[in-house]
Design brief:
Layout (H helix, E strand, L loop, with lengths): L2 H5 L4 H17 L4 H13 L3 E4 L6 H11 L4 E5 L6 H5 E6 L4 E6 L6 E5 L6 H13 L1 E4 L2 E4 L5 E6 L12 H4 L4 E4 L5 H16 L11 H12 L5 H13 L13 E3 L3 H17 L7 H12 L4 E2 L1 H5 L4 H10 L5
Parallel strand pairs: 1-8, 1-9, 2-5, 5-8
Antiparallel strand pairs: 3-4, 6-7, 10-11
The chain binds adenosine-5'-diphosphate and magnesium ion (MG).
Adenosine-5'-diphosphate binds next to helix 4 and helix 8.
């Protein structure tokens, strides 16, 4: 290994702080390792996460647990059909004693914002959120306000079939780095869940010890951004993403795709692969970083054709087929 590479080895103490958080979360959440990893990768890269799954699968619990392990400001918004953009951004309030309007900041002015059941929020609220997520700033009453750093949105949604929901528009889906779908547990996992909850209710709630602060996060962000990414891996990422537009060997699968992944897919996949490599304590990105993350990054960025949907094909299946026919060169 060359000196240049050895000098780039991750600061192992910093990596272990993140690994401690990963372990602490895994102890409280049965079978959510993938989601936990995506949350950490997202916090390192400044990405946002959308979690989809039926009620009761510990989506809210996971985000609460994550926020508790970061010394970050945390807010939670329960989306409902009557939610207004100002309920997220904040609003001007008349101050009687001064005779002036003062801007009272809303829940978006926090480091981690959990938007629960985002697809119950009306489109105007979703677009206010879109500005915040994309620009890391908000406009309210003719002013622009810069949001905190780090700023991370974790949104949850029920599967689209549920009644009374507004599916997120493609532009909104594109702002999320990850789209993680969580499934119903099998019997073995169900027992683990039961044991975790029984143990919890019997014991005094312990205080979480592993804490990541702003300094940890910004140091990790910098380290991950400098993680070596070879031309071969860049090329692999580009070929995966452009296959959704019909290019290359995987391109034939794009017949099932109505809307392909945008360049954000490429950028997020590269950044996330770097962060995954850093979390694993490596000094370079491997193709396996890309293959592990590609489904959770790409499947939310494509929309299948009506025809494919009618045949019961899923976005995840299409992405997997693209991956099967796209080799690392
Ligand atoms: N995988 C899991 N690990 C640990 N607890 C779980 C798990 N799945 C469900 N639970 C339990 O179910 C409860 C419901 O979780 P919650 O976060 O409210 O679900 P959701 O937000 O997905 O509707 C949690 O408080 C937790 O006790
Ligand atoms: Mg919930």
């Amino acid at each position: 290994m060359s000196d240049a590479l050895t000098n780039n080895l991750p600061d192992s103490t910093l990596v272990s702080e993140f690994t401690a958080v990963q372990h602490a979360m895994a102890e409280q959440l049965a079978g959510h390792e993938r989601l936990i990893n995506r949350l950490l990768v997202a916090v390192i890269t400044g990405g946002h996460v959308l979690v989809e799954g039926s009620p009761g699968l510990a989506k809210t619990r996971t985000v609460n647990c994550f926020a508790n392990l970061l010394s970050a400001n945390f807010s939670r918004v329960q989306a409902t059909p009557d939610l207004l953009p100002a309920d997220l951004t904040g609003t001007n309030v008349y101050q009687q004693h001064t005779g002036q309007f003062n801007f009272i900041k809303g829940p978006l002015f926090n480091n981690i914002v959990l938007v629960d059941e985002i697809n119950r929020a009306p489109p105007k609220v979703q677009s206010a959120l879109l500005e915040a997520m994309g620009e890391k700033q908000i406009s309210a009453s003719g002013h622009t306000y810069v949001l905190d750093d780090p700023f991370m949105v974790v949104a949850t949604q029920n599967p689209i079939e549920h009644e009374g929901t507004y599916p997120l528009p493609e532009a909104q889906m594109d702002r999320f780095m990850f789209f993680v779908q969580v499934a119903m547990p099998d019997p073995q996992l169900e027992l683990q869940i039961l044991n975790i909850v029984l143990k919890e209710q019997a014991a005094n709630p312990g205080t979480a010890t592993a804490k990541l602060n702003d300094a940890h996060i910004s140091a990790a962000k910098k380290a991950a951004a400098n993680m070596y990414l070879s031309d071969a891996i860049k090329n692999y990422i580009v070929r995966l993403v452009t296959a959704t537009r019909g290019y290359g060997a995987g391109g034939r699968e794009s017949q099932a795709i109505e809307h392909a992944a945008s360049p954000r897919g490429t950028i997020f996949l590269a950044q996330a692969a770097q962060a995954r490599a850093w979390l694993a304590g490596r000094d370079h990105t491997l193709p396996e970083d890309v293959t592990a993350l590609a489904p959770d990054i790409l499947c939310g960025r494509i929309v299948l054709s009506y025809h494919a949907q009618a045949r019961g094909v899923t976005s995840r299946e299409v992405i997997h087929r693209i991956m099967d026919s796209t080799a690392v060169l």
